[in-house]
Amino acid sequence: MLSRSVARTLSSQSRLFSSSATRQTKVAVLGAGGGIGQPLSLLLKSDPLVTSLSLYDIRGAPGVAADVSHIDTASEVNGYAADQLDQALDGVKVVVIPAGVPRKPGMTRDDLFNTNASIVRDLATAVARVAPTAHILVISNPVNSTVPIVASTLDKAGVFDPAHLFGVTTLDVVRAARFLAGISNANPRDTPVTVIGGHSGATIVPLLSQSSYGKAVTGEAYEKIVHRIQFGGDEVVKAKDGAGSATLSMAYAGAKFTNALLRGLNGQKGVITPTFVKSPLFAAQGIDFFSSNVELGVNGVEKIHPIGPISAEEQKLLDACLPELKKNIEKGKAFVA
Ligand code: NAI
């Protein structure tokens, strides 16, 4: 029989990583030396569904690899220097991209575009060449634009598969559950919130009305929590005072989404989470990338769920989201065109 503390540890681990059937899965992290990349590499080393970890950065990845490689889990770890991108991508099934610059106080995510657009485009070009069937998880901001940049880059190379490309919006989902739990005196496990739209300010649309705890939040408390979910990233940027944006909570969110994808790829049924993908939901309005609940399966995107019933307040949030999201997507596409 398990001791109580071991049982507790296992059950808390299973909140981040659930494992069912296991298969050989090689995962690469591009930007592994950074504020997100390092703790993300640590968490992926702890995920039993990752069998091989390939860590790449223009700075510092071999050191991170040597460090996490001593952790006593089964996966093997290799680190690659700036001129070894192709080797880093050899045989990978999943590529997670947190490469690029983060925000400083007063910056929006869109202010990062000039620097990060070309970083993401160049990395996507290498993935298209070396690992064209890999699943690509984009963390680098502005996600609303970097995902279309990756899509257009892969498309140009003739290897774009919409079922294999994901913008990681999990941090918004994690924050929404945490903040709702805080004002509901509940455990975040019991307060999941579907967050749709994109990943920046007004494009982040939490659907609190679809949750029993969320439905109970009204008036000023509702306005406050919506604002906090949309601008929670600013709290971290401000508190870090020039030293960057969310890294630890983002690494947690990135590892959580990667684990969900790996479970789907391994054949687990019913793995459903919001993520920013090529989507038919608002394509008629010229918005062909959108985050909504997506079922993950053996081929990546298995099924894109409709947004479902929403309240009048949420309709207003969605109305504010769509035009901004459209601009962000077009900016990404124009960069590659
Ligand atoms: P960081 O500056 O600490 O790390 C970025 C890393 O990328 C550095 O190690 C750098 O050497 C590396 N890098 C730069 N160019 C590269 C290239 N061409 N190839 C490989 N690696 C390269 O930044 P941090 O805090 O880790 O943030 C990374 C990105 O993640 C930022 O764009 C940030 O805005 C974004 N982010 C996204 C979130 C989300 O919810 N999707 C949440 C928080 C941050």
Tell me what portion of residues adopts beta-strand conformation.
15-25%
Biggest sheet features: 6 strands, parallel
Low-pLDDT windows of residues: 5-14
Structural class: alpha/beta
Q: Look at the structure and give the CATH class.
A: Alpha Beta
Number of helices: 11
* Series of secondary-structure elements, N-terminal to C-terminal: HEHEHEHEHEHEHEEHHHEEEH
State the strand order across the main sheet. 3-2-1-4-5-6
The best one-word shape is globular
Oligomer: single chain
Structural description of this entry:
It is built from 11 helices and 11 strands. It has helices at residues 4-16, 37-45, 61-68, 85-89, 113-130, 143-156, 170-184, 212-215, 219-240, 248-265, 312-336, and strands spanning 26-30, 52-56, 76-80, 94-97, 135-138, 165-167, 195-197, 204-206, 271-282, 287-297, 300-304. It has one domain (1-337): Lactate dehydrogenase/glycoside hydrolase, family 4, C-terminal (L-2-Hydroxyisocaproate Dehydrogenase, Chain A, domain 2, Alpha-Beta Complex), CATH 3.90.110. Strand 2 (52-56), helix 3 and strand 3 (76-80) form a beta-alpha-beta unit. It is globular. The N and C termini lie far apart (61 Å). The protein is of the alpha/beta class and 337 residues long. Helix content is 45%, strand content 18%. Residues 5-14 have low confidence and may be disordered. Residues 30-31, 33-37, 57-59, 98-103, 112, 116, 119, 122-123, 139-141, 143, 168, 171, 199, 244-247, 250 line the site of 1,4-dihydronicotinamide adenine dinucleotide.
